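debug: dumping io for the single-chain case to check the tokenizer round-trip. Nothing else runs in this session.
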Amino acid sequence: MQEKKKMQVPKFFFFKVSMLIIGLTSVCKCEDCRKPPKTITVSQSGNANFKTVQSAIDSVPSGNSQWVHIQISPGVYREKVVIESDKPCIYLKGGGGGSTSIEWNDHGNAHFTATFNIKASNIVANAIAFKNTYNTVDTGKVVQAVAARVHEDKIAFYDCQFIGVQDTLFDSYGRHYYKGCYIQGGVDFIFGSAQSMFEGSTLSFSMGLGPKVDGVFTANEREEDDNSGYVFKNCNITGTGGKAILGRSLNAYGRVIVANSVLSDVVRPEGWESLHHNVLKITFVEEGNAGPGANTSHRVPWTKHLSASGLHQFLDMSFIDKEGWIANIPSL
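debug: decoded output
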């Protein structure tokens, strides 16, 4: 955990620089990705354009400004997949998380070892499972093993699964939308500094074959002047084999909103914690939730309560989408 925290500081700078470069060079702004989608296919049987997901992505030209639909046939694709920054406007579609999965077993530095690593803007994934299988072997300890790293702007996931144990989903930077997704892990399994909305999704706590210890759903590290944070709306928060807090702040400015969701008794009574001694500017909010884990009577005393208008600014889609980029995603 300490190693991860040290890595975060320069990352914010590099993200800002990369966003500036993209803005100056007009690489696939949302309005540029309106040409009819080009479709390419992936199948392990060979009855398709490509046999691997990575080779299909590699075929997309540098500086692409047309939506490219990559249709992935059912199967377990054992490969590490990277979408480089010069390949925006890619729509990956599988046959469902139960039938189409991308799996790898690397661990360590979260920037480079994720099973699925997004470095480009305007990326969509639909009906695919992303798994890091490193911690599925009982070694007596659990280490950082990322299933997906999402490190750019305007990224959407629909009906996807993210499976891991520690640091499953590195929701790093940019504006992201997760709809109807399933995210499983045990320790900090949604972490980073992104500006993201999780809607109608399930967060499931599980330490897998690791030690049966209590865990953490989220670990947010928002910068002081950043508009980012994690919003969980109409979600199901559950789990087995232990208890977990909803989140912890990795610095003095973490922001997590949990609203109109169902919380099982997997949630520990205190709910939250901070790794920083100053909690005044941390924004951890629970509003309109139900279930045995939604009882806030024993929460840490520094959680926040928002007015109706204050809550609306986070629950409204404008929190992640002021210019309509989600509406411009093609229907496939």
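debug: round-trip ok. Residues 150 and 290 are 30 Å apart (CA to CA).
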